[in-house]
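In response to the reviewer comment on reproducibility (Comment 2.3), we provide here a single inverse folding case reported in full, input and output, so that an independent group could reproduce the run without further information from us. The structure tokens appear first.
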């Protein structure tokens, strides 16, 4: 299968996953579809040939961007599972809200670290800008879902509450996909600067 066909197939699968998240909300389908979307995002990235054709940039951070890239997808996935537990009554809102603040701050630190070191046209830079935008949308939708739910007595049965909740889930899935892609790009293209010989 050629790379353009693989990318198109990944796009179709991604759209089907996002549509399924809107149509069949459940704890099992949410989790499975979120992981499926992340896997499809990596498949599209690897099929595109971007990883082999992009230049390298210096990873001068402490901690390194590569180490931040290893942790970021795991944090996002755990936060999404906490959101699933909240939606289906397995835990209260405080843990999810606190987790959202910590994971959001971590992603902002990671993405701004990438934008500070990667050249402006580099795939890591572009992905980091996208990640910053999606984090903002995710936070706003989370606040809206929380406010609508608790202004209506804490129920998730009303259409307005379900709409904001589902949009928050879908944007979280997109956030996971972007985080996994950015982690893959950073691991493939960042390098530690050469140690300077002492005189």
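Designed residues, in position order:
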């Amino acid at each position: 299968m050629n790379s353009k066909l693989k990318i198109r197939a990944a796009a179709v699968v991604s759209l089907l996953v996002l549509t399924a998240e809107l149509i069949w909300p459940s704890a099992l389908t949410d989790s499975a579809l979120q992981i499926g979307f992340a896997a499809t995002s990596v498949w599209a990235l690897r099929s595109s040939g971007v990883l082999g054709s992009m230049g390298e940039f210096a990873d001068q951070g402490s901690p390194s961007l590569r180490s931040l890239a290893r942790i970021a997808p795991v944090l996002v996935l755990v936060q999404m599972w906490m959101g699933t537990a909240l939606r289906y009554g397995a835990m209260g809102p405080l843990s999810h809200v606190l987790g959202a603040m910590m994971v959001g701050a971590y992603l902002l630190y990671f993405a701004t670290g990438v934008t500070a070191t990667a050249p402006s046209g580099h795939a890591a830079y572009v992905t980091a800008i996208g990640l910053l935008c999606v984090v903002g949308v995710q936070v706003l939708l989370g606040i809206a879902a929380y406010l609508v739910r608790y202004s209506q007595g804490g129920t998730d049965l009303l259409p307005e509450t379900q709409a904001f909740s589902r949009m928050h889930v879908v944007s979280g899935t997109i956030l996971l996909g972007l985080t996994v892609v950015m982690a893959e790009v950073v691991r493939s293209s960042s390098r530690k600067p050469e140690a300077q010989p002492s005189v």
